[in-house]
Amino acid sequence: MNEQENTSPRRMSPSEYAAFTRKLDEEALAKVKEREDAAAAKEKAAAEYLESMPPVAEIFASDPHTLLTQVIHRIRQGYAIEDDGIKSFSSWLYHVQLTLPVTSTGKSKTK
Fold first, then answer.
1. What whole-number distance in Å separates Cα of residue 41 and Cα of residue 27?
2. Going residue by residue through the chain (111 aa), what tens digit of pLDDT does each one get?
3. This protein's superkingdom (predicted)?
4. Residues 58, 39 contacting (CB under 8 angstroms)
5. Residue whose C-alpha is closest to residue 53's, from 86, 81, 75, 84
6. What is the DSSP string of the chain?
């Protein structure tokens, strides 16, 4: 019978329980902060990409609204859609490739 007493779980004291729940809360808050930081970094990277002026802008979107918003943004920056610029146009993936026009000096146009 002594073995059963040793294998049964013991109850936590109120201070142990408080420390345990505090640890769980801290871990949960750390995970939330990590997710928020990752989302902020992703948002910052997307904003930096939209402000950049690569010679070829690849736009991938999963919905028509996002596609049109990004295409309009790039067109306002001076990009153009070539004849073969629409790479994929399905109900779940839109892929458009835009290019900066080449000026008479042979360099891409930049603002």
1. 21
2. 455 556 778 888 999 999 999 999 999 999 999 999 999 999 898 888 777 888 898 999 999 999 999 999 999 989 999 888 899 888 889 999 999 887 655 555 554
3. Bacteria
4. no
5. 75
6. -HHHHHHSPPPPPHHHHHHHHHHHHHHHHHHHHHHHHHHHHHHHHHHHHHH---SEEEEEESSHHHHHHHHHHHHHTT-EEEEEEEEEE-SS-EEEEEEPPB-TTSSBP--
Place of tokens 């690569």: 54
Question: What sign does the CA torsion over 49, 53, 54, 57 have?
Answer: positive
Q: Are 103 and 55 in contact (CB under 8 A)?
A: no
- Domain locations in the chain as residue ranges: 14-53, 55-100
Only one residue has tokens 């399905």, namely 90
C-alpha distances (whole Å) from 47 to each of 35, 52, 73 are 18, 9, 12
